[in-house]
Amino acid sequence: MGLTGLVAFSGGAGFEPLSTILVGVALITALFRHPGPETALKLDRIWLPLATLLVVRALVHVFVIRDDVVIPVVHLLFLLMAVEALRPLDAVNDIRLYALSFALVLASTAYRPGVLFLVAFIGYVGVGTMALMVGHVRRAAEAHGVREVALGRRLVGTTLALSVVTLTVAGALFLALPRVSRGFAGRGETAATSIVGFSDEVSIGQHGSRIVGNPQIVLRVEFPDSQPSNLQGLHWRGRSYDRFDGIRWTRSRDLPPSSAPASWYQERWDGRVIAQRIYGAALDTRVLFSLHPTLRIESENGIQPLFDNAGDFVYWGAGAPAYRSISREGSPPPDRLRAASDGFRPSRRHYLQLPDLDPRVAALADSLTAGWTSRYDKTTAIQSWLRGLTYTLDLPATAREATLAHFLFERKAGHCEYFSTAMVVLLRAAGIEARNVNGFLGGEWSAFGNYLAVTQNQAHSWVEVWFPRIGWVTFDPTPTGGSGERLASWYWPGRFLFDGLQHRWNKWVLDYDADSQLGIIQRWAEFLEPVAETGPTDEPDGRSGPWAAWLMVLAAAAALWGAIRILRERDSIPTHTKLYLALRRTGMSAGLEIGPGTTPAGLVSRVVERTPAAGVDASRLVALYTAARFGRRPLDPTDIEEMRSALRRIGQALRNVRSAG
Amino acid sequence: MNRLLARLRRTTTEVGRVWRKIRGWRRIRFTSGGLVFTLGTVAVGFAAMNTGNNLLHLLVGSMLGFMTVSGWLSEQVIRSLAITRRAPRAVMVGQDMRIRYEVRNRKRYLPTLAVELIEEGLSEPAFLHHVPPGQEVRAQSVNGFVRRGIHPLGTLTLSTAFPFGLFRKERDIRLPGEIIVRPRTDRAIPVTAPAGGRTAVGGPSAGGGRGVRGEYRGLRSYRAGDDPKDIHWRSSARLREPVVREYQAEAAETCWICLDARGEPDDRAEIAVEIAAALAARAVVEQRPFGLIAPGVHIEPESGPAQLDRVLDALALVDFSPGAPPPAPAVDPGRCTLVTTTNGGAGFGATIPVPADAVWEGP
């Protein structure tokens, strides 16, 4: 139990090497070789000062540092558990170990543990069931002087069955217990640190090495209605950047309110509506990713989505976001974009801003766009030229080589941020409002879980160009070779399976809420709803009315079976005993003093005292009862009938006395 | 008013009867561990509701699951058991009384584990640590009585805290019966010679030994304690019930024990009863026929262990009271040994008074 508790905590709060290894070694040692009383005495001299120190440390954390108290308390739990494990096994010690391991499992719920917690939890329930059961039987046997307790191997099977029952009940109650709180108490996942791609500030100044891959999954996307045609080409838009200082992209604080609200795209774009249910990881910046253009975002786990001035979606709330996003698929057709020339334009101060640049950049922009008049043609010209360059994950060797000019005119190779930066700068140099956008590109389809898994490796940077009366349109100048998967994220094929489990865990356990409950109830209501008459049709109705009826029949049969079992148990009382008990009841109803301690002979005496006329019958009834019950004399139907008759006469005699009195 | 009170009393009795029936069917009590566990479940449940932390909900679910499993399994453990109780008909004060139980587990798959069988009014339970499915095991409880009388055996309680020791579930089974608790027979008594000049030594005496046969008198029904060698098999077969030969003992050797039951039912009364029991036991050792005279009791003289059983059973039930009638034997008092707590005794062959300062030591 201690080990499973340890695994549950490690799976939840993270692995703290030193303390976890120490307590793990102690628990494993206790599993195979139990130290004697002398070792336990020596340990007693060590652990008490250590425990005192840890208590003081926890108090300091609470009252002085005002820091997280969970870890100091968990260290104290670790120490106590190690000490208890290395003590001789006795009944009290067992209970302490159970309590400590339970406290560890309880502590791990303060975090947002992964699916490893579930594995440890199942193990904990299984081991706990066996430990509690065997421990109880042993303690009870010892208390009654039974030394050898042979429980047999079948007990393992029984324990497994009981664990399954416990887990089933736990699961059912988990689903059924009402979620009345939105729960902001979770401590949240450890924030994922971006190595490449997405962050709140983007720099192209990195140099001297190669971008290292990070296969951590940041988005799991389900498509409840219909799946987009080109999954690898999906741009999961995160955050846009308007200000470039030559090295870094940042966001201006004085941006005017969004130039293109969601309603704009609702009315002016006509692509297919794509619904996405997105389960995000907790990143270092609270951004909601979605396909562009996003029409609407609804929270699914208590976060509060916000629409900022740049048109990006961010959120309030702790933990990992889960939300439903509605977007339009694709972009407007080229003809429409080509025709978009007049109309509102967003803040030029922000979206045409340029730093001091190498004069060759402006010249390049002029040369690339010289032959074109429309925004669209100029944009595609620049995009086409950039796609002719080389994609590489190797960073420039020096800071001088990390500049945009060096990328465009000398190195002519770089990663996505160079391409997007170059395109925005060239567009702005050509007088076209544009901005840099970061997010993720594509993803890996998990057939096991039917969702798109997007990893940090798929972090990407692209461009949004303003088209009057249409809005911001996505363009991606990064060469095709670099737009797809560029870093091995699925190097472990089993990860599909594992991540599918993780996704289900997040979806059905960690993020389970009142809405999910409502959904289940609605599905059941639909399942049980009787088939409605909707007019003649040749197609079979997909609903399962007859199944619901069968389910009810089964439930009724189960209830009947249970009732029959109870009745049968009562019927197992022999008839002679029933008749004797009936005599007692008759006497009690007549007001005779008959208590639990009244013997059969005493019962006869009471009856005789009240009415001597019933004495013979009472004696005969009791004699037959005692002969059958204790003398093992079989009673034939005549005897039973005699007992019944005697009982009737006794009842009548007692009633006569009562009415006479 | 009286009628109303009577009706109220009847209603109360009826409610009490129904309540006892309900409680007798199943009872659940917390153990100390179970109380802590339940309070912990409530606390974790409160935390879960308050924070919305789903893992706490899962934990509460599993704790309630443990409780459900505990309730279901404890129910299974104490049901479908066929219990046969083998209790002695009578036992002597101070001696160990062993009640044996034959318990058959009628369940097909589930064993019965860690069940206590508790007799109402007895302190020591029997314990079943493991009854495999479909098999029978035996268990016994050992108890002792400190006072003579009749101990009713009414309710046998099956009690278990299985599987986790969190709750104790109990089920009552009605098994009416009784045990006669006989007085001790090893009390030291003075040498008396009520008739025939026979003497006896003081000190403990033991039951047993064959009775004096004397002349053959006839046949009678078998009684518990009769020597099986006296069974007349041919007649038993003919009459379809066991009958034994009865012999006429010599009148000169008959010992009549007369117990004076006047007085408070205190320690001295118990001493008087034990003296009478010791006299009977001594008569058995001396192979003399003996009879007993006490208020409402007149046992004709016979000899042997069966007669001792009859006398001890009667002595177990003798009630002392200041208003009890004086001893009036139907035979010549001169042939009787009177045991009394009062000063009377004139005319009796021998008198054994219980001293006023005598203290009953108990078993």
Which structural traits does this protein have?
heterodimer; A: alpha+beta; 5-stranded antiparallel beta sheet; 22 helices; 50% helix; elongated; B: 363 residues; alpha/beta; Immunoglobulin-like; 3 domains; 6-stranded mixed beta sheet; 5-stranded mixed beta sheet; 6 helices
Task: Characterise the protein shown here.
The complex is a heterodimer of chains A (661) and B (363). Chain A has 661 residues and is an alpha+beta fold. Chain A folds into three domains: 2-176, no CATH class; 202-501, no CATH class; 575-660, no CATH class. Chain A is 50% helix and 13% strand. Chain A contains 22 helices and 18 strands. In chain A, helix 1 packs parallel to helix 5 (91-108), helix 3 (37-65) packs antiparallel against helix 4 (70-85) and helix 5 packs antiparallel against helix 6. The longest helix of chain A has 29 residues, at 37-65. The radius of gyration of chain A is 39 Å and the shape is elongated. Mean pLDDT of chain A is 80; it is low at 182-198, 483-490 and 533-544. Chain B is an alpha/beta fold. Chain B folds into three domains: 17-182, Immunoglobulin-like (Sandwich), CATH 2.60.40.10; 183-212 and 250-363, no CATH class; 213-248, no CATH class. Chain B is 30% helix and 31% strand. Chain B has six helices and 16 strands. Chain B has helices at 2-25, 32-51, 54-78, 233-239, 267-285, 305-317; strands at 27-30, 81-86, 90-92, 96-105, 112-119, 126-131, 136-144, 149-160, 167-182, 215-221, 243-248, 255-259, 290-294, 297-302, 336-340, 350-353. In chain B, strands 1, 3, 5, 6, 8 and 9 form a six-stranded mixed β-sheet that branches. A five-stranded mixed β-sheet of chain B has the order 14-13-12-15-16, with helices on one face. A three-stranded antiparallel β-sheet of chain B has the order 2-4-7, with no helix packed on it. In chain B, strand 5 (112-119) and strand 6 (126-131) form a beta hairpin. In chain B, helix 2 (32-51) packs antiparallel against helix 3 and helix 5 (267-285) runs antiparallel to helix 6. Chain B is elongated, with a radius of gyration of 29 Å. The relative contact order of chain B is 0.12. Mean pLDDT of chain B is 83; it is low at 195-212. The interface between A and B is large, with 72 and 53 residues.
